[in-house]
Amino acid sequence: MIDTERRAQPRGKPQVIDGVALPGPVERMVKGVILTVACALVILPFVGIISTSIATPEQVTQAGGFVFLPTGIDLGAYRMIFAGGVVTQALWISVLVTGVGTAISLALTTTLGWALSRRGAFGVRAMLLLVLVSLLFNPGIIPSYLVVQQLGLLDSLWALIIPTSVSAFNVVVVRAFFVRLPHEILDSARIDGASEWQLFTRIGLPLSKPVLAVVGLFYGVGYWNAFFNALLYMSDASKWPLQLVLRTFVVDGTQLGGQDLGIDAGALPPQTSLQMAILVVSVVPVLLVYPFLQKHFAQGMLTGAVKG
């Protein structure tokens, strides 16, 4: 049927199928060139970063710091940063904060979203208004610091979790998903004697896997990439997360010494190789998680945000 419609179209005019004009060969070529250039602009920097991190010290020195195509492979930079120094410690702290923080954030967000989705319950409108108002007004740095200080959380890993444990946007998305659940299923469960907690754990949560995957990804990436709270609340360098180490030794250009890596300073690779290796370690975990949650991304966001 489609081939018949295409043959029926006069040459020189755009093809139309079901009232939709198909792009011509020139438009397809232009789009292909634009997408190719965009992909190259995204991929080539990563290739250069990875190549520099695995290039031999001699090639990095000769190239002046940045290598695009390494002639040999040397994993000395990775061995150095994983030797038990500040980078290894920061990596474990980031993993701990991301895992614990994401679990706490998902628990708080889902319970609050479920409570706000129960129409007619006492105080739901007032609580929902507070959540929506928090989308418009954020606390300043000084008030946030004073609250964390009064709670005794300075130089504590909880300072990296508690202040950002609940996102109002994610609460609204989860609530919108719970509102869309079929009332017939919930009513039948109530008739069978299910409590509100059983409705939440046995019906709400199992049906909300797509939106929870997306919200969990948002929280996980947020915790993994966060460095500003650590910069404010952490004066003990042994409790720095990986992103603050990345900022200190890569963005600020602070030299990594043998004391920082826990090894002999005389055996250090070039600083550029160490910096690029830290950058790769900080980026790769997020890149590995995205493909597994990509299939839930569109479904979770659409089902959670179409109806409020």
TrEMBL record:
It is a multi-pass membrane protein. It holds the Pfam family BPD_transp_1. Residues 91-289 form the ABC transmembrane type-1 domain. The chain crosses the membrane at residues 32-54, 91-116, 128-146, 158-178, 211-234, 274-293. The keyword Calcium does not apply. Keywords: Cell membrane, Membrane, Transmembrane, Transmembrane helix, Transport. It is found in: Cell membrane. It comes from the Bacteria. PANTHER family: ABC TRANSPORTER PERMEASE PROTEIN MG189-RELATED-RELATED, POLYGALACTURONAN_RHAMNOGALACTURONAN TRANSPORT SYSTEM PERMEASE PROTEIN YTCP. Belongs to the binding-protein-dependent transport system permease family. This is Carbohydrate ABC transporter permease. It comes from Promicromonospora alba.
